Amino acid sequence: MSEDGTYYQRDRSWHPPAYTPQYKTSVLRAPQYPLLSLENTISEMTGPVFGHDKLGPLDNDLIRNYAKTGDPIGQRIIVYGRVLDENARPVPGALLEFWQANAGGRYRHRKESYLAALDPNFGGCGRTITDQEGHYRFRTIKPGAYPWPNGVNDWRPAHIHFSVFGHAFAQRLITQMYFEGDPMIWQCPIVSTIPDKEAIRQLIAALDRNNTIHMDALAYKFDIVLRGRRSTLFENRMEGN
Amino acid sequence: MVQRLGHLKESPSQTAGPYVHIGATPNWVEITGVWQEDLGLVLVGPEAKGERIIVKGRIFDGSGTPLKDALIEIWQADAAGLYNAPQERRGRADPHFVGWGRQSTDGVTGEFSFETIKPGRVPFSDGRMMAPHITFWIVARGINIGLHTRMYFGDEEAANAECPVLARIEHKVRVPTLIAPRTEENGLATYTFDIRLQGDNETVFFDI
């Protein structure tokens, strides 16, 4: 029974809706008409493939991939996990891209206006491709929390942004990873665009003391789930029907 | 109680935020030396088959202001209507045409502009042919989950008229929001696809 049918319908009640007034920027950027539901066609069931030849040896090491004079300041961490689909099968060959603020909460971006200092040794971007079992890992420093212009005193919890390519454009996803135990998760207007607390918990990486590196780095486990596919057993009518 | 289905839930989406470029197009925001070249800059190799075209436009918010911080990805078939993807089983796509492109909208004007080729037709799920189209995926600050839409071609009136996807749009006045008019600019066929997130001419977005 092969799984090469159409993708399961996205559960829009699990995702944030487009219009979320507590996150002010969404108000003028939220489509107001209902989305047009479309069964998958080949245009959505295909997608680009990225080979390992696209990657450099330091792409998954944010501690070293921008360093100029030494290591960046901050808590050294390993982030690892698996990319799975809704059928709990691994998604091999998935390109993951990640970006984040430095330990002080400052992004290396010309539009950033937070006072925290730039770190000359930290760029804040990385990428990797999952292996045959869907595993990935990368090394970085723990990002800081930072204030942002929404309410006058709104702060983002520490987070890492993830962009994920599965095997089809229908699976394309951008999300954010949060850190276990951070009280600011529950005060954030962007986190709270997700209506269901269980769904929010799905984005909180677990501290994993068993996979720390001695005198070096803490470890956080973060699994990502992409849409699953229908089995062709159900996609095609049974014989005789 | 009944048996459990055992399905996992898809990870919920979160906005790409204002700094999506750091991860997606770092060289474009002057984070250089981490990797050589941003992905998705070039779709068309010199030997690719098909008519060279420019696809350009802007994305407007509900106040009519263009988004200057969006990221756009496009995905399309080659000139023969084949996707350069392992799931493509109808034939082998043109190896000189990637079919996937990615750009940030300009930080001052909000414009995007892809150099690509005009795609061929591909079949709908029931085998009928869809009109030639390019799939768009848009993320930005303030967009909580990526928006899917399609660009169709203004000079493909006959194909557009019989496209089963365009036929699905109940309010016919909205069909033109997906159709990009063709002009000639600097000797190149140019299609202008402006996307409106809200308002009288809100673009049709898909739940695929």
TrEMBL record, chain A:
GO MF annotation terms: protocatechuate 3,4-dioxygenase activity
InterPro entries for the chain: Intradiol_dOase_C, Intradiol_dOase_core, Intradiol_RC_Dioxygenase, PCDO_beta_N, Protocat_dOase_b
Superkingdom assignment: Bacteria
Enzyme Commission designation: 1.13.11.3
Family to which the UniProt record says this protein belongs: Belongs to the intradiol ring-cleavage dioxygenase family.
Domain Protocatechuate 3,4-dioxygenase beta subunit N-terminal: 8-41
Pfam families per the UniProt record, alphabetical: Dioxygenase_C (PF00775), PCDO_beta_N (PF12391)
Alphabetical keyword list: Dioxygenase, Oxidoreductase
Enzyme class: oxidoreductase
The Intradiol ring-cleavage dioxygenases domain, residue ranges: 46-228
The keyword Oxidoreductase appears for this protein: yes
Designated name of the protein: Protocatechuate 3,4-dioxygenase subunit beta
From TrEMBL, chain B:
Domain Intradiol ring-cleavage dioxygenases: 55-83
Transmembrane segments: none
PROSITE patterns the record matches: INTRADIOL_DIOXYGENAS
Keyword Acyltransferase: no
The enzyme's E.C. designation: 1.13.11.3
InterPro entries, sorted: Intradiol_dOase_C, Intradiol_dOase_core, Intradiol_RC_Dioxygenase, Protocat_dOase_a
UniProt keyword Transmembrane helix present: no
Gene3D superfamilies to which the protein is assigned, alphabetical: Aromatic compound dioxygenase
Pfam families in UniProt: Dioxygenase_C
GO terms assigned for molecular function: protocatechuate 3,4-dioxygenase activity
Signal peptide positions (record): none
Sorted UniProt keywords: Dioxygenase, Oxidoreductase
Matches recorded under NCBIfam families: protocat_alph
Family indicated by similarity: Belongs to the intradiol ring-cleavage dioxygenase family.
Name this polypeptide is given: Protocatechuate 3,4-dioxygenase subunit alpha
Species this chain originates from: Microvirga puerhi
Taxonomic lineage of the native organism: Bacteria, Pseudomonadati, Pseudomonadota, Alphaproteobacteria, Hyphomicrobiales
Gene name for this UniProt entry: pcaG
